[in-house]
Design brief:
The chain has 122 residues and is of the alpha/beta class. The chain has one domain: Response regulator (Rossmann fold), CATH 3.40.50.2300. It contains five helices and five strands. The protein has a five-stranded parallel sheet with strand order 2-1-3-4-5. Helix 3 links the parallel strand 3 and strand 4. Helix 2 runs parallel beside helix 3.
Amino acid sequence: MSVPTVLIVEDEWAIADWLEVVLSELAFNVLTASNGREALDILTRQKPDLVITDFMMPFLDGAGLIAAMQDDPKLQDIPIIVMTSLLEEALRERARGYRSYLRKPFREADLVRIIGELFPKT
């Protein structure tokens, strides 16, 4: 069984670093991008098993990234977790196609729970 890969898209380096540590401890290969534009560039070369993205970012925000992924048949099936300080109702008005939502600030246990739901142990 191959090790799953996750792409973290986060413009705040401290959050990105923390997520990278947590996900590495969960045995994921981790890729990082600081905005949606960088993420799309990575997605042209590699197809991760999961994308965890911030919603509010410079250059291309989470809504733009999600829309671009939904428009690409090669990327449509990748589950997306969105992190934001917005209430989920406000997020739903601006983005469609994400699998899960984490309201910032969130606890590591919440992230681990959602990842466990997406990648159940066999």
